[in-house]
Design the sequence.
């Protein structure tokens, strides 16, 4: 079972919910938390453990062999991302635009664009407690494409997960390719929002995205207690979107968060909210 | 010498487009015979990725020696332009094509 936690707007509390829900559920059942927000993976700040594995994850990019190239330009025609360009005297490659689709390489009539690996990031696997494991991948500085690292990390997770493990995916913010890569393999997606116009705006984008993917999803209203709450709640009610929990805004939560500590162990209201989420989604 | 201007229109009094890669038109002025040629780059608006290199490719295929634009190309586009030694002059944003040409003649544009 895979549950993804996504948002739209950044900073609504995806990681806070992911680490707290994972640790809470792991009191009773086996959980693997995957921090797939590879551009800024923060789960490891809250969950410390013993590292059992790490590996470099490569992404594949083409390399031009001038000697065998006949300058037919087929590679350029094929590339939908303009990562390969034929100019009068050579083929130019733009690795940061490459989506590793292999089309130029496979369809080159003289095999002059072989693919080779380039380090895209590093995957870490740690044991946090008896029932909780953390897998977090870190994008290499200077790399712009998160998707290949996310997809390689998901393959690794599928390799280590037992059938009774609950996988919780902490998604990057936004509604672009990295978020889609994370949510597309999930059975259910929790969308975390906050009572601000920005949070509401991006929640609507995230909902549209989930509907397009035909995903089962539900909503958690975090940092609640603002007069803007009702705008989001009414919107969800009128469209029949399920809000599975409201987590109140509390100064104490911010203090614990900034100290890198888990919230539910010290704030009963949050433990209660996690328990409601677990029951609603039948995760316990 | 062929001189390319990034522009939003088709006339010599059209404004310079300060952007390079996503500029919809280029006016190419051939100083040899004072002839003008237009590169229609408007299809670039539907290109999501790699607009800069793609536009740079058109510029070098047109045999341009000097490019006059506003903010200057990004790194990728500059890499492509450099392969043909195109001289890049910037700071013409806010001028018309005519004004930018005069500024070029008076050496008032900045080397990129």
Sequence:
């Amino acid at each position: 079972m895979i549950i993804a936690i996504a948002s739209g707007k950044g900073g609504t509390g995806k990681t806070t919910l992911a680490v707290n829900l994972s640790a809470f559920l792991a009191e009773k059942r086996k959980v693997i938390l995957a921090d797939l927000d590879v551009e800024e993976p923060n789960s490891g700040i809250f969950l410390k453990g013993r590292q059992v594995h790490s590996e470099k994850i490569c992404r594949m990019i083409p390399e031009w062999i001038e000697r065998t190239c006949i300058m037919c330009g087929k590679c350029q025609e094929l590339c939908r991302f303009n990562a390969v360009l034929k100019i009068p005297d050579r083929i130019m490659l733009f690795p940061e635009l490459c989506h590793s689709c292999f089309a130029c390489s496979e369809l080159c009539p003289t095999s002059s664009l072989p693919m080779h690996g380039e380090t895209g990031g590093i995957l870490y696997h740690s044991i946090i407690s008896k029932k909780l494991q953390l897998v977090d991948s870190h994008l290499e500085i200077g790399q712009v494409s998160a998707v290949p690292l996310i997809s390689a990390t998901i393959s690794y997770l599928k390799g280590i997960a037992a059938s009774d493990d609950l996988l919780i995916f902490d998604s990057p913010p936004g509604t672009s390719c990295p978020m889609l890569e994370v949510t597309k393999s999930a059975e259910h997606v929790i969308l975390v929002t906050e009572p601000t116009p920005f949070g509401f705006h991006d929640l609507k984008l995230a909902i549209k995205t989930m509907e397009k993917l035909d995903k089962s999803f539900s909503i958690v209203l975090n940092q609640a207690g603002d007069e803007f709450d009702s705008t989001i709640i009414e919107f969800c009610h009128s469209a029949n979107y399920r809000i599975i929990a409201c987590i109140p805004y509390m100064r104490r939560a911010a203090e614990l968060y900034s100290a890198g500590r888990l919230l539910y162990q010290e704030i009963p209201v949050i433990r209660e909210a996690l328990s409601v989420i677990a029951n609603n989604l039948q995760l316990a | 010498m062929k001189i390319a201007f990034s522009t939003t229109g088709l006339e010599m009094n059209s404004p310079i487009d300060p952007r390079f890669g996503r500029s919809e038109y280029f006016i190419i002025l051939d100083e040899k015979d004072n002839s003008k040629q237009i590169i229609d780059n408007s299809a670039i608006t539907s290109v999501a990725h790699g607009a800069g290199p793609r536009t740079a490719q058109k510029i070098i295929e047109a045999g341009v020696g000097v490019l006059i634009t506003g903010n200057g190309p990004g790194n990728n586009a500059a890499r492509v332009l450099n392969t043909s030694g195109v001289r890049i002059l910037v700071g013409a944003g806010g001028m018309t094509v005519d004004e930018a040409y005069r500024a070029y003649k008076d050496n008032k544009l900045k080397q990129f």
Observations:
- The longest helix of chain B spans residues 51-61.
